Amino acid sequence: MPSKEDVWQALLTAFPEPDDADSFGPALYYSQMADALASLATVYADAFSDAAYRIRKENLTSETYTLIEHFRETRKVDVALVREDHPDIYGELVHLDARTAQSILGAGVLFWQCADVEGEEALLDKAVITVKALEESLGEEYAAPYMVLKRTHDRFEVVPR
User: Fold this and answer.
1) For a surface tag, which of 16, 103, 114, 155 has the fewest beta carbons within 10 Å of its beta carbon?
2) For the segment 77-129, what is each residue's pLDDT rounded down to a tens digit?
3) Whole-angstrom Cα distance, residue 115 to residue 33?
């Protein structure tokens, strides 16, 4: 497989950088090269994605390579559970994200002002407490049971065994 440096040298050989006193020539060259390489990167990324999904879907194996699937994890506080177990902390930390608050009353409106309009129960499925705020209030260990862990696919990586 060619390294990044090998590809770079091949490109420079095939498409030499302009030696131009006028800065516009090199600027155009770099702009066009960046566009071309970005398009090619998309082509290769799509081809890799197709190959990786085929390997995974067909459970293909190799004595030389293995497919590692990487995940991105996000955490979200289970607001109703915090409300039930820690009403004092719930009262301190609960709020609406800006879009929800804005859709009810307009930007910048606090949770309890929305609750006066909609009722607290009606807001529970939209209410949020940030992970950071709950961990700072309860500590990481005690906040963990109130977290809902969600895993979404991030990317694949092929590595030698």
Assistant:
1) 16
2) 999 999 999 999 999 999 988 888 777 875 345 688 888 888 888 888 888 88
3) 55
CA–CA separation, 144 and 88 (whole Å): 18
b/e map 118-157, b = 16+ CB within 10 Å: eeeeebeebbbbebebbbebbeeeebeebbeeeeeeeebe
Q: State the alpha helices, DSSP H only, in 58-150.
A: 79-85, 87-93, 98-104, 111-118, 120-123, 131-138, 140-143
**15-44: b (≥16 Cβ within 10 Å) or e:** eeeeeeeeeeeeeeeeeeeeeeeeeeeeee
Neighbours of 9 (CB within 10 A): 12
Whole-model pTM: value is 0.55
What is the C-alpha to C-alpha distance for residues 43 and 24, in angstroms, rounded to an integer?
Answer: 29
